[in-house]
Amino acid sequence: MSAILETRDLRREFGALVAVADMSVEVEQGSLHSIIGPNGAGKTTFFNLVSGTLPATSGRVFYKGDDITELPVYKTIHRGIGRSFQITNIFPNLTVHENIRLACQAMGGDSFKLFRSHRRFTGYLERTGEVLEQVGLTSRALQLARTLPHGDQRKLELGMILAPDPEVLMLDEPTAGMAAEQVPELMSLIQQIQESGSKTVVLVEHNMNVVMRVSDRITVMHQGSKLAEGTPEEIAANDAVRTAYLGELYEEGTAS
Ligand SMILES: Nc1ncnc2c1ncn2[C@@H]1O[C@H](COP(=O)(O)OP(=O)(O)O)[C@@H](O)[C@H]1O
Ligand SMILES: [Mg+2]
After folding, report:
1. Distance, CA 14 to ligand 2 centroid (Å)?
2. Of the ranges 26-30, 44-48, 174-178, 242-246, which one carries the lowest mean pLDDT score?
3. pLDDT digits (tens, 9 = 90+) for 41-82
């Protein structure tokens, strides 16, 4: 197995609270690896540590064998790690096209020099068109982001993460707040992006039906620690997971 992303004894304390306790995880290149666990288990904090949004208390993060533990988030993005946030992160008063274009420009490192070079700008426009196509929002390009239906806002967010063409996508509850009937469409879009672009996806997701269907591998977190890890079949059959969480997670997943 070749891990594109690896954490070793990754830990984050908030005062007396150990939010992430010595998590060692290997994410295989090209896989869809889900991280599940009840609210407060430490999933978002784990994402924050890996992406450089939050400094670790101890432990290391490796990306393609390089130690990226100390890198701030803008540098991990440049390395090829794209991450979403649990909260929607789009610019509501810009159009869909402008949102994606800004995300493309941010990758070029000149988000504040909009018209520095005509050729470069044309490059951004081309890339914007590609991304819009990829997430199925071409027909919505000129619409203000805030007027999009919720499901399309989540697609737009996915587009903004895709803009710099990351190798790893870290998605924190991408289906949160979506109507149940919209979930399959977003998930097949994510799978399509993973498979066709040979990208690696690390997914935090509450909906257990979704997780069991799409994941190559699942890590179960419990109070900051790894409770179990394996294929969907192994996790479904794991007694510790079952007694501790699976029932609860399934209920939450189907209720929301
Ligand atoms: N910035 C913070 N300051 C203090 N405590 C935090 C902070 N962020 C998260 N926590 C705590 O860390 C634990 C894990 O939170 P989180 O990573 O958000 O869990 P999850 O995403 O699995 O629901 C929770 O107890 C949460 O209250
Ligand atoms: Mg969270």
Report:
1. 15
2. 242-246
3. 999 999 999 999 999 999 999 999 999 999 998 899 889 999
Which residue's CA is the nearest one to ligand 1's atom 11? Answer: 19
Residue 30: left if φ>0, alpha if ψ -120 to 50, beta else—which one? left
Domain boundary assignment for the chain = 90-165
Q: Which atom of ligand 1 is nearest to the CA of 45?
A: 17
SS3 label, residue 243: helix
Instruction: Quote the ligand 1 centre to 53 CA distance (angstroms).
Output: 13
Distance CA 202, CA 78 (A): 17
Token pair for 177: 């707040």
Q: For the chain, where are the alpha helices, taking DSSP H only?
A: 43-51, 73-79, 96-108, 118-134, 150-162, 183-196, 208-214, 232-237, 239-241, 247-255
- Global pTM? 0.90
Nearest-atom number in ligand 1 for the CA of 37 is 22
pLDDT digit string (tens) for 217-244? 999 999 999 999 999 999 999 988 887 7
- State both tokens at 55: 């400094």
What are the pocket residues of ligand 1 if the criterion is a CB atom closer than 6 Å to any ligand atom?
14, 17, 19, 37, 39-45
